[in-house]
Amino acid sequence: MKRIRRLCLRTVLPLLSAVAAGASAHELTARECMEGSDYIRNAALSRDSGVTEAAFMDVFERDMMMIARVPPSLRWFVQDQDDESLLRAALDDVFSRPQSPQQHALDFARACVPHTGEWKALGQDRI
User: Fold this and answer.
1) What is the Cα–Cα distance from 87 to 95, expressed in whole angstroms?
2) 3-state secondary structure (DSSP) of residue 28
3) pTM: predicted TM-score of the whole model, two decimal places
4) By the 8 A CB rule, do 66 and 120 touch?
């Protein structure tokens, strides 16, 4: 019986930890969405100035590796995988569906706001 308990603890505890980590995903703030929109606008401005997708994404990937070394609570925007995915999707749009920098910033804000605690507090799940 002890053996079974130990086996359960070894297999169930990591699973519960993973579920708990997923349940506590970082809720963005409205300020983070604004700053993220600025980042996306600047990415589009860089694109318009001749920076290639490969060059921009190379810097982005290196930044993500460096950010991962910093405790999440001290990070600017990318505190978890969901945050990184949101930013990465917007960057993909910047280079694969070129629009004005202002439009990319607005699109990012629309995608970001539903991830904020403030928006969820209003009982909303999308704009």
Assistant:
1) 13
2) strand
3) 0.72
4) no
Q: How distant is the alpha carbon of residue 66 from its chain centre?
A: 15
**Residues 88, 43: contact at Cβ < 8 Å?**
no
For 44-89, what is each residue's pLDDT tens digit? 999 999 999 999 999 999 999 998 898 987 877 788 889 899 999 9
Q: Both tokens of residue 11?
A: 């297999």
3-state DSSP helix/strand/coil % of the chain, to nearest 5: 75, 0, 25
CA distance 47 to 95: 7
Q: Are 59 and 101 in contact (CB under 8 A)?
A: no
Residue positions counted in the chain? 127
In sequence order, the 6+-apart residues with CB closer than 8 A to the CB of 3 are none
**Residues ≥6 apart with Cβ < 8 Å to 37:** 105, 106, 108, 109, 112
- d(CA 39, CA 116) in angstroms, rounded, equals 17
> Is 90 exceeded by the pLDDT of residue 31?
no
